């Protein structure tokens, strides 16, 4: 029996590679950089399975070049890079890797909140630039986190993990979600709020919702106008959930105090993006899940999803179950 062929166009954890190699033929590229289109399309031509990070966009045009493809295993919890309707129409399974990155991404989210609140990157530059000549009472005044109000927009797994951290800081927790999370309300003391109400009351607004047609531009000019002048916006979900131009205007006009961003409308972010020159904005290079342990666990979960799909079992994290049924 011919082994199924998996195309992996970038470096993944060796443990995941070994797991796949036991049962499949691998077309593996041990590189960090994104393949150019010609090399990527060449690899797709003979692939039964494709394992990718979310930087690869899988559209109808791409799928036209993959006549044998049976499954796409995304090494990410988000899957807005996948045209799920097109994959389903062609009978191609799609999977993602939830759960394993929840706590790691929540760590990063709360670290970003703390860094923006206490102006940590700005203070670090101040010292390293040799500008710290004396202690002053007003030097690098920040904003308290303990006892403040945090508003979480999108109370999924990661949102709840952020709320657990906020509870440890004695924060009052508001949340907005498509559905009420009664268990979170009981265990965390979280309060459900409409989006406008949450924006008005929160000292920190943390955006945790996935990118969908409904959430694209969810936080725009109108929504930012509801926020307090001393509030800080944190986004570790997807860049396009926030209207980036509206955010730039709100920050430059000091209608909100600051922002902490791990994601952007276009990635990598352009060097001339005004956000990069704003001292009240902390900017990270999309590293929400970037720990060695978590990236290995993500790759292993993606590998298990891949093997299940290729060998007739239902993948644990199947995004389009109608294809399997």
TrEMBL record:
<protein>
    <submittedName>
        <fullName>D-glycerate dehydrogenase</fullName>
    </submittedName>
</protein>
<dbReference type="InterPro" id="IPR006139">
    <property type="entry name" value="D-isomer_2_OHA_DH_cat_dom"/>
</dbReference>
<dbReference type="InterPro" id="IPR036291">
    <property type="entry name" value="NAD(P)-bd_dom_sf"/>
</dbReference>
<dbReference type="InterPro" id="IPR006140">
    <property type="entry name" value="D-isomer_DH_NAD-bd"/>
</dbReference>
<dbReference type="InterPro" id="IPR029753">
    <property type="entry name" value="D-isomer_DH_CS"/>
</dbReference>
<dbReference type="Pfam" id="PF02826">
    <property type="entry name" value="2-Hacid_dh_C"/>
</dbReference>
<keyword id="KW-0560">Oxidoreductase</keyword>
<feature type="domain" description="D-isomer specific 2-hydroxyacid dehydrogenase catalytic">
    <location>
        <begin position="8"/>
        <end position="320"/>
    </location>
</feature>
<dbReference type="GO" id="GO:0016618">
    <property type="term" value="F:hydroxypyruvate reductase [NAD(P)H] activity"/>
</dbReference>
<dbReference type="InterPro" id="IPR029752">
    <property type="entry name" value="D-isomer_DH_CS1"/>
</dbReference>
<dbReference type="InterPro" id="IPR050223">
    <property type="entry name" value="D-isomer_2-hydroxyacid_DH"/>
</dbReference>
<dbReference type="GO" id="GO:0030267">
    <property type="term" value="F:glyoxylate reductase (NADPH) activity"/>
</dbReference>
<comment type="similarity">
    <text>Belongs to the D-isomer specific 2-hydroxyacid dehydrogenase family.</text>
</comment>
<dbReference type="Pfam" id="PF00389">
    <property type="entry name" value="2-Hacid_dh"/>
</dbReference>
<dbReference type="GO" id="GO:0005829">
    <property type="term" value="C:cytosol"/>
</dbReference>
<dbReference type="GO" id="GO:0051287">
    <property type="term" value="F:NAD binding"/>
</dbReference>
<feature type="domain" description="D-isomer specific 2-hydroxyacid dehydrogenase NAD-binding">
    <location>
        <begin position="110"/>
        <end position="288"/>
    </location>
</feature>
């Amino acid at each position: 029996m011919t082994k199924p062929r998996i195309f992996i166009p970038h470096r993944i954890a060796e443990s995941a590679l070994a797991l796949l190699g036991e049962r499949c033929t691998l077309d593996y590229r041990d590189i960090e950089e994104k393949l150019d289109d010609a090399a990527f399309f060449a690899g797709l031509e003979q692939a039964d399975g494709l394992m990718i990070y979310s930087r690869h966009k899988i559209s109808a045009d791409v799928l036209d070049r993959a006549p044998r493809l049976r499954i796409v295993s995304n090494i990410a919890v988000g899957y807005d890079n996948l045209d799920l309707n097109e994959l389903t129409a062609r009978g191609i399974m799609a999977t993602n890797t939830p759960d394993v990155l929840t706590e790691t991404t929540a760590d990063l989210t709360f670290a970003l909140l703390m860094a923006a609140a206490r102006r940590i990157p700005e203070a670090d530059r101040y010292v390293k630039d040799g500008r710290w000549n004396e202690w002053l009472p007003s030097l690098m005044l920040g904003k308290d986190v303990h006892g403040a109000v945090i508003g979480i927009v999108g109370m999924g797994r990661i949102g709840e993990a952020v709320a657990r951290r906020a509870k440890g800081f004695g924060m009052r927790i508001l949340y907005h979600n498509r559905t009420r999370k009664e268990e979170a309300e009981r265990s965390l003391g979280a309060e459900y709020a409409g989006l406008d109400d949450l924006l008005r009351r929160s000292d920190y607004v943390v955006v945790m919702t996935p990118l969908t047609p409904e959430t694209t531009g969810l936080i725009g000019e109108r929504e930012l106008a509801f926020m307090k002048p001393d509030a800080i916006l944190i986004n570790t979900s997807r860049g396009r959930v926030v209207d980036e131009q509206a955010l730039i205007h709100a920050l430059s006009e000091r209608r909100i105090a600051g922002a902490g961003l791990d994601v952007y409308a276009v990635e990598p972010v352009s060097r001339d993006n005004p956000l990069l020159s704003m001292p009240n904005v902390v900017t990270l290079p999309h590293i929400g899940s970037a720990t060695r342990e978590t990236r290995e666990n993500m790759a292993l979960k993606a590998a298990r999803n891949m093997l299940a799909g290729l060998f007739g079992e239902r993948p644990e994290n199947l995004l389009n179950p109608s294809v399997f049924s």
